[in-house]
Amino acid sequence: MSPPRKRSLTLRGHRTSVTLEDEFWEAFRDIAAEDDKAINALAAEIDAKRDLDTGLASAIRLFVLRRLRGR
Question: CA-CA distance, 43 to 30, in Å (whole number)?
Fold first, then answer.
């Protein structure tokens, strides 16, 4: 397991960063490619649906986990 690293994203025209482990980031990129979406677009979708109490990095991890469990 890799240590978390900061990753840059652009959401609604604003730069932001999330801290994710390489494994989660790679799975997130793979899912975006499978869905034929840009990674920023997929992150924006997740951001729009998350609870305000949930950080974006956590929301991405949960999205990846749910997606992989659904296979």
Answer: 13
| C-alpha–C-alpha distance, residues 61 and 19, integer Å | 10
C-alpha 60/C-alpha 18 separation (Å) is: 9
Q: If we measure between CA atoms, which residue out of 62, 35, 65 comes closest to residue 47? A: 62
Which residue carries 């999205």 as its tokens? 63
Domain spans in the chain, listed from the N-terminal domain onward: 5-69
Report which of 16, 17, 40 is spatially closest to residue 28, judged by C-alpha positions. Answer: 40
Distance CA 32, CA 3 (A): 22
Residue 9 tokens read as 């994203």
Question: What is the residue-averaged pLDDT of the chain?
Answer: 95
Alpha helices in 1-71 (DSSP H): 22-34, 39-49, 56-69
pTM greater than 0.85: yes
